[in-house]
Amino acid sequence: MASFEEAGTEETVTCLHLTFYHPCQDEKMMFRCLNFCKREQVRADETAKFGRDSSVCRYNLMDTRVSRIQFSLEFFRKLHTSEYCFEIKNLSKKTKLTVNQTELGYLNKIGLPWKCIICFGDYQILAEIQEGESMDYFETHLHLAEAPILQERCLPSLQPIPENGISPSFFPSQGKSPTEIDENEL
C-alpha cells in the first residue's frame, strides 16, 4: 500500500457544465435521451455533437425542429499556452446559433467563453467551463433548468406607468417638461 507522500498527483479534468432549457420540455420531453446529473468523459480528440441524429450525435435532442446535427463542441489547447478551451461550430443549415449575442451561421465557429448562453430556436443552454489540466479527455456535466436561462432582452421602462397601464411614451411629447393628462381625456 503506497503512502500519501508517494501517491501520484491527481490530475484535474476540464469539465463543461451545460444547463438545458426549452419552454415545452415537460410536454415534449426533448431532453429524455440526455444523461443529466452524471459526469461523462469525452476523449480530447472527439468532437461532441448535438442534434437529433443518434447515429452521429453523442447528445441527442428529441425534436423534429432540431437539425440532424445542430452544433459541435471541440476541445483544444491554445497555442503556446497550457490553457484548454472549447470551440463551438454551427452545423445547421437552417437555424442560426447565438453564443451570447454573437450570431453564427452555417459552419461558423468561435471560441466558447468561460460562461455563456447558447441559443437556437426555443432552446437555451448555459455553458460554464471548469478548468482542468488533463490532455487526454474532458468531462461534460448536463443539468436541466426549471426556468428560462435567458430573460427578455428588453430593458425595463424607467418611466413610471400610470394606473391606467398606458405608458406616457405612446403620446407625442409637447415639450421638455412633463405634462399632466386627465385619465378621462384618454
Beta-strand percentage range: 25-35%
Q: What's the helical proportion of residues?
A: under 10%
Structural class: mainly beta
Separation of termini?
Answer: 86 Å
Question: What about the largest sheet?
Answer: 7 strands, mixed
Radius of gyration: 23 Å
Number of helices: 1
Q: Tell me the number of strands.
A: 12
Mean pLDDT reading? 83
CATH architecture classification of the domain at 15-144: Sandwich
Specify the overall morphology.
Answer: globular
CATH top level label of the domain at 15-144: Mainly Beta
What is the spatial order of strands in the main beta sheet? 2-12-1-11-10-7-8
Protein name: TRAF-interacting protein with FHA domain-containing protein A
GO biological process, one term: positive regulation of canonical NF-kappaB signal transduction
Domain FHA: 49-121
Main location: cytoplasm
Overview of this protein structure:
The structure is a single chain. The protein has one helix at 25-28; strands at 15-21, 40-43, 47-51, 59-60, 71-77, 84-90, 97-99, 102-104, 109-111, 115-120, 123-130, 137-144. The protein is mostly beta strands and 186 residues long. Strands 2-12-1-11-10-7-8 form a seven-stranded mixed β-sheet, with no helix packed on it. Strands 4-3-5-6-9 form a five-stranded mixed β-sheet, with no helix packed on it. The termini are far apart. The relative contact order is 0.22. Keywords: Cytoplasm, Immunity, Innate immunity. Residues 49-121 form the FHA domain.
